[in-house]
Specification:
15 strands; 5-stranded parallel beta sheet; Quinolinate_synth_A_type3; binds iron/sulfur cluster; metal-binding; Quinolinate synthase; binds 1,3-dihydroxyacetonephosphate; alpha/beta; 444 residues
Length: 444
């Protein structure tokens, strides 16, 4: 059952359960008139004033029944043929995913676009930083379209270039810039894929690198081979969980609050630091708790708990498996015996896994229905609007990363692609870190 149907049933009192806000049942179009991320998990986060807003789209899309929108999307796609590729992130609603040529995680999708060389337009049903990454990796003549410009990412928005530049100036003033006896510079910047293109470019310019949730450990190893410490942004949880799993003490991971001098730390704390963690988080993954895991274990003895590393450390520690969206999907796909899985990630993905693998019992750890607010912004009405415009030769909602930013951001992305996990004793070279992220094992 799609999230929209679930929300409708709960809102009308026809199904048991709760949603995090009754506004989820309001028409999508209403969300774009309110300043904020909209209803869902990040609705209480502060939206930067510079965030793009989506204008009102024509009534013919706002008033069209769902069946008509689906027909119009299919017709436009058939007319455009190979000239367009539609990408759908795992967290998108089913009504959008059904039109996607590829379904996958953010980096798989950015690469999937490259497998369609005839595509003049890449319609990215995901969030803003994903469309930017696709634009960086795509050919110059390929146009990248985000169907709703307000589909940002509240976590990515928690680190902006000015605050990161200011933090960098403070840290380099404290640490200096001279390498140690092993040639390691004082600090290396590492940005999570979930960040604006100008932050990826910042890393490219300053000897840094990008990571995804599937290769964060390899990327941190890469960084520690070249630097004494790391400044990790924007997600504190991915940074902390990854560094802790590598054996780094949490005492040596101070948090950098961009609103405070020294990030809220003393010089001594910063000098002791191995990983300085930016004060960012994902409001979807912050909802998962150890109590929910304990309840799942009580109610479903033998349950396998899988969570995303954007969850808080205590949740990751209490889970059986922690890993990226791709790892979550692969773990479920690999289970040969009927298994009960409690999953701590976005609800659209969990519900889709439950539908795809009926031999297993699969449920979301969070009993409250609360999708990612920004992924939720994309609705078939927007998809029909941008696709029909393409048929007329018009490109709407184009995401363009300036050339200078692209050059530096590509440096940081290419470092990630070249980073290799350290082989274990007696093991063959396991290949580049980004192997899982560069596969095209997305559903056609
Ligand atoms: P992926 O990089 O696995 O697609 O995850 C993106 C995301 O937004 C997780 O919250
Ligand atoms: Fe951003 Fe979290 Fe939504 Fe992912 S789930 S797009 S990190 S707000």
């Amino acid at each position: 059952m799609s999230i929209a149907t679930t929300i409708e049933l709960i809102s009308n009192g026809r199904a048991a359960g709760t949603t995090c806000t009754p506004d989820l049942a309001a028409p999508t179009w209403d969300f774009d008139s309110v300043p904020g991320y909209g209803p869902g998990s990040s609705m209480s986060d502060v939206i930067p004033t510079s965030s793009p807003r989506q204008g009102v789209i024509p009534d013919e899309y706002r008033n069209a029944p769902d069946d008509e929108l689906h027909e119009r999307i299919e017709r436009a796609k058939a007319t455009l043929g190979d000239r367009v590729v539609v990408l759908g992130h795992f967290y998108q609603r089913d009504e959008v995913v059904r039109h996607a040529d590829f379904l996958g995680d953010s980096f798989q999708l950015a690469n999937a676009a490259l497998t369609k060389p005839d595509a003049e337009a890449i319609v990215f049903c995901g969030v803003h930083f994903m469309a930017e990454t696709a634009d960086i990796l795509a050919r110059d003549d390929q146009r990248v379209i985000l169907p709703n410009l307000a589909a940002g990412c509240s976590m990515a928005d928690m680190a902006d270039i000015d605050s990161v530049e200011a933090a960098w100036a403070e840290l380099t003033a404290l640490y200096g810039t001279e390498p140690d006896a092993d040639g390691r510079v004082p600090v290396i910047p590492v940005t999570y894929m979930n960040s604006a293109a100008d932050l990826k470019a910042f890393c490219g310019r300053n000897g840094g690198i990008v990571c995804t949730s599937s290769n964060a450990a390899t990327v941190l190893e890469w960084a520690f081979e070249r630097g004494q410490r790391v400044l990790f942004f924007p997600d504190q949880h991915l940074g902390r969980n990854t560094a802790k799993a590598m054996g780094i003490s949490t005492d040596r991971m101070p948090m950098w609050n961009p609103r405070l001098a020294g990030g809220g730390n003393t010089a001594a704390e910063l000098l002791e630091a191995q990983v300085v963690l930016w004060h960012g988080f994902c409001s979807v993954h912050r909802r998962f708790t150890v109590d929910q895991i304990e309840q799942a274990r009580r109610e479903h003895p033998g349950v396998t708990v899988i969570v995303h590393p954007e969850c808080p450390m205590a949740v990751v520690d209490a889970a059986d498996v922690a890993g990226s969206t791709d790892l979550i999907r692969k773990t479920v796909a690999a289970a040969t015996e009927p298994t009960t899985f409690a999953i701590g990630t976005e609800i659209n993905m969990v519900n889709r896994l439950a539908a795809e693998y009926p031999q297993h019992t699969i449920f979301c750890l969070d009993p409250v229905v609360c999708p990612c607010s920004t992924m939720y912004r994309i609705h078939p009405g927007y998809l029909a609007w941008v696709l029909e415009a393409l048929v007329r030769g018009e490109v709407l909602n184009e995401i363009v990363v300036p050339a200078a930013v692209q050059v530096d951001a590509k440096v940081a992305l290419e470092r990630m692609l070249a980073a290799r996990p350290r082989p274990l004793a007696g093991q063959r070279d396991p290949g580049p870190a980004a192997t899982t992220a560069t596969t095209t094992d997305v559903r056609a």
